[in-house]
Amino acid sequence: MSSPRILVVDDEADLRELLEITLLKMGLDVDSAETLGEARAFLAKAEYALVLTDMRLPDGLGIELVREVTALYKGTPIAVITAYGSAENAVVALKAGAFDYVTKPVALDQLRIMVQSALRLSTAQGGQAEPEAGTPSRLIGNSPAMQSLRAQIGRLARSMAPISITGESGSGKELAAREIHAQSSRASKPFIAVNCGAIPEALMEAEFFGYRKGAFTGAAEDRDGFFQAANGGTLMLDEVADLPLAMQVKLLRAIQERRVRKIGATAEEPVDVRLISATHQDLAKCVETGKFRQDLFYRLNVIELSLPPLRERLDDLGILAGAVLDRLAGPGQAKLGPQVLETLAAYSFPGNVRELENVLERALAFANDGVIEVGDLSLKSARLAEPSAASMPAQAPVIDVPAPAAPVASPMSAAAPAGPDTLPSNLPEYLEQVERDIILRALAQTQFNRTQAAQLLGISFRQLRYQMQKLDIHAPED
C-alpha cells in the first residue's frame, strides 16, 4: 500500500528541500513544483492527500491554486505558506477554501501538526473513517433556513479556518459548533466550550493557558488550560465579546503563534486547536467602539456562520416541540393538544429555541396525562410584536435599586444601614440582598422569563442563571 502523497509548490529551493525532507521523514511521498504551471501538471497526473503552496510564485499567486484545487479537486486539502506578519494573506486564503496555513520561517512542529490534520481529513473523505457517520444532526428542522445551515456546516467541517458563529441568544450556537466538530476530522478529539463572560478576569490567563506548580499562591500542582485540554480538537469561545482587552492581546498571540506558555513556565508549547467563537453581540460594532481588538476580530471572523432566529423558521416548530417533549417525558409520552401549535406560532420567541424548551417544560408540569393545552403555555402576555434579542437595546435600562432602609421581611435586613449616612454592618450580605432584589424585579417584570430578564439586565443568560443559583432564586414552578 503506497504512502500518502504531498505536493509542495514553492520557488525557494532551500525551503522546498526542507519541506521535502520533513515530509519524507514522516513516511510520506513528495512531489515538488516551482511554478503554478508545474503544480497544475502534477495535479492532472496524480491524487494528493495535501497540496502545500507558497502565496507568491514566479507565474502567479498561490491563491489562484487554492481556488482551482477547491473547485476541481474537492477531496484534496490545500494549505498555504505565508510570510510572517501577513495575516491578511492567510485570511484571504482561508476564505477562498484553504484548509490551513503556515507562516515563514516555517516551524517544523507546526508543519507536522498541520499535515497530520490534513491526512485525517483525507482519510475521512475517502470513506475510511467518516466521523460520527450516520449520527442524526443536532440541529433539528426541515425549513429552508436549517437545510442551508446544515449544508454550510458540512462545508465548514472540512477546513481548519476559524469560524465566528453569530445569532440571537438561545438560537443554538453551541449546538452548531458541536456539529462542526462532529463532522470534522477532529471528531475523535476533545471539544471544549468556554463561556468567556463567566470567568473572572484575574483567572483568565490561568484558565486559558494553564500554570506550573508554585507559579502563584495556591498553585499546588501543574494544570493544563483550555488550549491544552482541547489539543487536537476544537475550542469554542462562547460570548467572546465579553473578553477584556488585556486577554484579547494574549489570545491573539496564541492564535498567531499556535503556541501557549503556562504561567510560571519558561518555554512555550505547541497546540493544535481549531477555534470557533460565538456571540450574540455585533462584533463589528464592538470593534468600532473600541471594546474589541480589530486584529483579533479578523483572526476569529475568517468565516461567519449566522444562525436564524426561531421566528424565521416557524415551519420547524412542530418537529422541535416533538423533540423537546420526547427528551423531557420520553418518546411518545407527551404531546400537544388542539390549537397549541398555532398559539406557539403566534408568539415571537425572543429567547428562540431555548425559550421554547422552557415554555414546554413549564407547560408539561401543568399538563394532564401528558397532553399540553393552550392554557398550560402561560403565554397570555405574549405579543407578536414583542422585541427580539437582536432589537433589544444595547445597554440595559436603569433599574432603581430599592431603598435599603425599608426591606420587607428581608433576611438580610440586619445588614442594611439605618439611614443614608450609615454604613452597612455586613457589606457582602447587604450587596447580595441588593443584587437579589434587582434580579427578582427583572424576573417579575418578564414573568420569570430568564432570557428576557438577562437581556433587561445587560448580562448573558448563563451569568443570570449562575447568579440565581448562587442567591438561591427559583422560579415559582421550580
UniProtKB/TrEMBL annotation:
The modification 4-aspartylphosphate is found at D54. Residues 139-365 form the Sigma-54 factor interaction domain. The keyword Zinc does not apply. The keyword Metal-binding does not apply. Gene3D superfamilies: 1.10.8.60, 3.40.50.2300, Homeodomain-like, P-loop containing nucleotide triphosphate hydrolases. Signal peptide: none annotated. Keywords: ATP-binding, DNA-binding, Nucleotide-binding, Phosphoprotein, Transcription, Transcription regulation. PANTHER family: RESPONSE REGULATOR PROTEIN PILR (PTHR32071:SF100), TRANSCRIPTIONAL REGULATORY PROTEIN (PTHR32071). Residues 5-119 form the Response regulatory domain. This is Sigma-54 dependent transcriptional regulator. It comes from the Bacteria. PROSITE patterns: RESPONSE_REGULATORY, SIGMA54_INTERACT_2, SIGMA54_INTERACT_3, SIGMA54_INTERACT_4. CDD domains: AAA.
